[in-house]
Design a protein that fits this description.
Elements (H helix, E strand, L loop, with lengths): L5 E5 L6 E5 L5 E5 L10 H48 L13
Amino acid sequence: MAQARTVYVTCPLCGGMLEVDTENGKVVRHFKAKPKTESEDTLVEGLKAVKAGEGARDEKFRAAQEKEKSKIERIEDLFRQKKKEVEESGDTGKPLRPIDLD
């Protein structure tokens, strides 16, 4: 397997890319880094994005909470209705087991 003749490393001074010859260790090419503006600070931009989405996340959470509450209420209501139907039918005994039918 042939080994790469050059490697690419980040320049510690300017942040650009250096192409280095692996045989002699000399820099073959230097690619300049693009200039960084203040708006490109990734940490600041990330914090702004998190804060901007905070309200939307809270609203989604509240909506999911309400949905779960309504789901629980609906299930409890169905249970009460079925229980009432069973009590009105007068059939409050245990159901037959398949073994009892033999």
